Amino acid sequence: MALTTRGARLAAAALATALPLTACGDIGAQSTEADGGLPLVRFSGLPDPAPLPVLVMQELGIDERHGFQAEFLEVDPDASTSTFLLGESDIAVDQDATSSAIANNEGGDVVSFYPALTNTAAIVVAEDSPYQTPEDLVGKRVGHFGNDSGTTQAISVSLNQEWGIDPVEDYDLVQSSPAALPELLASGEVEAIFDYEPYGLRAVEQTPGRYLFQVADYWQETADWSPPLAMLTVRREWLAEHGELVQAVQTAWREAVQEVRETDYQLFLEEPYATFLDRESEAELQALADYCAQLPCYAEDWTTSDTDQQLAYLNLLVEQGGLEGLPDSAPVAVLDQLVSAD
Q1: Residue 37: which region, alpha, beta or left (left: phi > 0; alpha: psi -120 to 50)?
Q2: What is the radius of gyration, based on Cα positions, of the chain?
Q3: What is the largest CA-CA distance in the chain?
Q4: How high is the pLDDT of residue 33?
Q5: In a domain, 170, yes or no
Q6: pLDDT digits (tens, 9 = 90+) for 216-240
Q7: Residue 272, preceding bond cis, omega within 30 degrees?
Q8: Cα(142)–Cα(280) distance, rounded to whole angstroms?
């Protein structure tokens, strides 16, 4: 089974522990220049909506206008965390505050500083099923892709908070890959699935299905905030040497996001973005664009208040046993405060 930030987080712990022992430990301190003399910033991520603003930067020249050249490294799902922790990329687009907390608890020193993707984790059931709330699924077979996945953790902490439900104890969990879960639901092998987009939408279309619970909606309604599914994340060692450069990256990221938002996410249907997102059909791609426009998938800002909310969310994970504890090195922060502190 693929291990991703939306999948299993065990690699974060293993690599963070191994990092000081490897010859790769000083890679992150090195400075790299592109052919044009601009500093090269290496982003890593999966082929989903989270890193798409990097492609927008490249296509529109936003990166070069801000004094750097963006390079995107598409990583295998089972190597996404290790690629970043070992310094093969400078900024990870597929990590989050929880994975940063786990890495720091195990001896790493990374920090998430800006949301890359709104939380799209959801529970999907068949459209004609009798289930109306997560409580109705107690004792039922529910598909997921790992107890340590960001999706399962986000759904679990939400269900525990609202209904006192522990999916590991209260549901009959069936494990598969994110991409395989929609078929499990459509075939009737499970009564519900925990998944993220675009696979939730795929399940809705294929089964046909409907959303029973959505993490972002729940947190917006209860806290006027929701935990990002993915965040721009950097190793503090690299940040200390490239603070102004990372600030330029954040500015460029926000401009790229604005380009997408101004099209109501219909930019997803244009090349090279459509090929990058690699959905099964144009209809699925259109559904993803419409979904992201409604959510919306990309945030416009990240403030001290957001950081406080995220830390409160991590504390809730600790209280519920989903996280060992909060590390001494803060796993999430506002970039300008990090740079000024250095």
Answers
A1: left
A2: 19
A3: 61
A4: 72
A5: yes
A6: 999 999 999 999 999 999 999 999 9
A7: yes
A8: 24
| Residue 126 CB partners (closer than 8 Å, separation 6+) | 185, 188, 191, 207, 208, 209, 210
Range of the domain at 89: 10-118+228-341
Which residues share a beta bridge with 43?
72, 91
Instruction: For residue range 131-163, list pLDDT tens digits in order.
Output: 999 999 999 999 999 887 788 989 999 999 999
Q: What is the CATH number of the domain that holds 141?
A: 3.40.190.10
> Which tokens belong to 280?
């099964």
- As to burial, measured by CB atoms within 10 angstroms (0-12 exposed, 13-18 middle, 19+ buried), residue 200 is buried
Token pair 């699935």 is found at 193
> Distance (Å, rounded) from C-alpha 121 to C-alpha 216?
8
Residue 7's nearest CA partner among 181, 243, 213 is 181
| CA distance linking residue 144 with residue 126, whole number of Å | 15
Read off the tokens for 201: 């939408």
- On whether the CB atoms of residues 92 and 232 are closer than 8 A, the answer is yes
Using CA atoms, how far apart are residues 64 and 264, in angstroms rounded to an integer?
A: 25
- More confidently predicted of 42 and 78: 42
User: What band does 4 get if pLDDT is binned at 50, 70 and 90?
Assistant: very low
- 234 and 320 co-located in one domain: yes
Q: Check whether 15 has a pLDDT greater than 50.
A: no
104 near 317, Cβ under 8 Å? no
For β-strands 230-235 and 91-95, DSSP reports them as: antiparallel
Residue 1 lies in a domain: no
Helix (H, G, I), strand (E, B) or coil at 265: coil
The two tokens of residue 223 are 């806290």
pLDDT on residue 76: 78
Domains contained in the chain, number = 2
- Taking the C-alpha atoms of residue 180 and residue 193, their distance in angstroms, rounded to an integer, is 10
Phi and psi for 213 in degrees, rounded to 5?
-155, 135
